[in-house]
Amino acid sequence: MSTVREKLIEATFEEVFTKGYNGASLANILNRAEVKKGAMYHYFSSKKEMVLAMIKEQQQTRIERKWKPLIDEEEDTISVLTSILLDTKSWDLTNGCAFGNLMQESFDQDEDFALVLEEILQNWKNLFIDALNKALKNNQLKENTNIQQCATFIIATLEGAILLSKKSKDSQNYEDCMSQLTIFLNSLKK
Q1: What does the alpha-carbon distance between residue 158 and residue 177 come to, in Å, rounded to a whole number?
Q2: Deepest of 13, 18, 83, 107, by most Cβ within 10 A of its Cβ?
Q3: In the beta sheet, which residues pair with residue 71?
Q4: Residue 107 confidence (pLDDT)
Q5: CA-to-CA distance for 57 and 149, rounded, in angstroms?
Q6: The pLDDT value given to residue 2
Q7: Are 188 and 141 in contact (CB under 8 A)?
Q8: What is the dihedral of CA 58, 62, 64, 69, to 10 degrees?
Q9: 100: which residues sit within 8 A by CB, 6+ positions away?
Q10: What is the percent of the chain where pLDDT is above 70?
Q11: 45 by DSSP, 3-state: which?
Q12: Could you report the per-residue pLDDT of 43-52, keeping only the tens digit for each?
């Protein structure tokens, strides 16, 4: 059974993911969590504090869960990476990326959000850097591959593709971008 704090974190994620930080209602979060306001104040002093905790706890966990097959892969890193990217059913192309949505809405509005989001973005980039370095070490990539630039390009393409699909309400945008990203990634293979 979930603790009150866990319920609040999960409800905060759902509310912020669907409505954004500014549109998120504390009353809706409390209703989703089935928690009274007084109980919330035992754990968090404000909606902002609760959202910052949710970002720190949920986003890194979700990134690690999503990319676990890539983290664990030893033999064919690029194939595992492209299979995750091409699996359209595993992406929410209607609501977008929870992390991307928060970055668009909050990155420049609040220094606390900017710091937390920048840390998560760097952790996500490091995940790709580590996977690509492993592929390079295992002789799967061309030696002249710029790992840092490639990791940045993967994130930018992925986030852009998800945003385009969300805005257009058409998954074809995502599929087209991932098709081109796959061609690029396969060109890096030895």
Answers
A1: 8
A2: 13
A3: none
A4: 63
A5: 27
A6: 75
A7: yes
A8: 160
A9: 159, 162, 163
A10: 98
A11: coil
A12: 999 999 999 9
Could you tell me where the DSSP H helices lie in 34-170? 37-43, 47-54, 60-72, 77-86, 98-106, 111-137, 147-168
Low-confidence ranges of the chain (pLDDT < 50): none
Tokens representing residue 13 in the block:
């994620």
Mean pLDDT score across all residues of the chain: 91
Q: Domains in the chain and their CATH numbers?
A: 55-187 (1.10.357.10)
Copy the structure tokens of residue 49: 């504090």
d(CA 57, CA 99): 12
Residue 23 has a pLDDT of: 87
Cα 66 to chain centroid distance, Å, stands at: 9
pLDDT at residue 1, rounded to an integer: 52
pLDDT of 65 reads 85
**Are the C-beta atoms of 58 and 9 separated by less than 8 Å?**
yes
User: Which amino acid would we find at residue 92?
Assistant: D
List own/partner pairs for 85-93 with CB under 8 A and 24 or more apart.
85/158, 85/178, 85/181, 85/182, 86/178, 86/179, 86/182, 88/171, 88/174, 88/175, 88/178, 90/66, 91/162, 91/174, 92/162, 93/162, 93/165, 93/166, 93/171, 93/174
Question: 86, 108, 104: which is closest to 95 by C-alpha?
Answer: 104
**End-to-end CA gap in the chain:** 49
CA dist., res. 70 & res. 134, Å (int): 10
